[in-house]
Amino acid sequence: MRPVNLIPADERRGSRKPMRGGSLAYMVLGGLVAALLGIVLIVGAENQISSRSAEVTELKSETAAAEAQASKLAAFTQFHTLSSARTTTVSNLADSRFDWEKVMRELALILPSDVTLTNLTGSVRPGISVGGGESVSLRSAVAGPALSMVGCAAGQESVASFVTDLKDIDGVTRVGLQSSLRPTAESGGSESASGSCTAGTSTALFQIVVAFDAAPVPVAATSTTEVAAAPEEAAPEEGAAEPAAEGTPAAAEGE
Predict the structure, then answer these.
(1) Closest listed residue to residue 122, CA positions, set 11, 105, 243
(2) In the chain, which residue ranges form alpha helices assigned H by DSSP?
(3) Last residue of some domain: 96, 124, 145?
(4) φ and ψ at 112, to 5 degrees?
(5) How many CB atoms lie within 10 A of CB 44?
(6) pTM exceeds cut of 0.90
(7) How many domains does the chain have?
């Protein structure tokens, strides 16, 4: 026979006692666990936000301190920039200076006894007006320092020899002969390119430009050094000079 439990169900004990809550208890328990996890996540997020906010506040404070320090040092930065600019300017000025004293000394050494300079003008760039200086149009073809010479020589051979000697001056890159004229017998032999050479009909009146192309060319705003020899008293003109029959020496290019 099959045994039958005669104890009422609500008084039974052990594993045979029926469940009183059913599935509702599990649902409530799951809801509580989910709520607990949500609270934990919210608290963790709030803590992380608070930590990041503190970091942002600290970084802003450091940025403000760095900007204040930079403002204090701005004057030193501006001074350094100004100092560098002035140093560069002085260096450029020093590099663009031309040693006229050396050129004049070497010119005096190679100047022949049969050549007379009535006007000598030195300038670091074309377009400079020098008091007492005589303009030579060939000067405009030289961008850098150059000497413009006007004078006379004993003859065309002396002019050619003088042009060759000018190439021996240190720094000379080329020598240009603009003109070399010999007065005719009818002119009386007294007029020169500058009006101050008095000689016979064999005298050659010349205009020469000596170029120093390798020298640095200063900017237009830079002050320049000029060397000019005042012309001598001009002799009264007795006649117009005409080209010589045998022609004039050609312009010579220096090495």
Answers:
(1) 105
(2) 23-96, 100-110, 156-166
(3) 96
(4) -70, 160
(5) 10
(6) no
(7) 2
Query: Among candidates 131, 92, 100, which has minimal Cα distance to 210?
Result: 100
- State the sign of the Cα–Cα–Cα–Cα dihedral 134, 139, 140, 142: negative
Q: How many CB atoms lie within 10 A of CB 9?
A: 9
Burial grade of 139 (CB within 10 A; 0-12, 13-18, 19 or more): buried
Give yes or no for a contact between 235 and 213, defined as CB atoms under 8 angstroms apart.
Answer: no
Judged by DSSP in three states, 176 sits in: strand
Domain boundary among 68, 96, 124: 96
On whether residue 46 sits in a domain, the answer given is yes
Three-point CA angle 165, 154, 122, nearest 5°: 50
- CA 163 to CA 177: how far, in whole Å? 8
Are 110 and 165 within 8 A, CB to CB?
Answer: yes
In angstroms, rounded to a whole number, what is the distance separating the alpha carbons of residues 39 and 28? 17
Same domain? For 42 and 64 the reply is yes
Cross-strand partners of 146: 123, 211
Three-state SS for 241? coil
231 closest CA partner among 125, 117, 76: 117
pLDDT tens string for the chain (255 positions)? 677 777 776 666 655 555 555 577 778 888 888 888 889 889 888 888 888 888 888 899 889 888 888 888 888 888 888 888 888 877 766 666 788 899 999 999 999 999 999 999 988 888 877 776 677 888 888 988 999 999 999 989 999 999 999 999 999 999 999 999 887 655 544 444 444 576 566 789 999 999 998 887 665 544 433 444 434 444 444 444 443 333 334 433 433
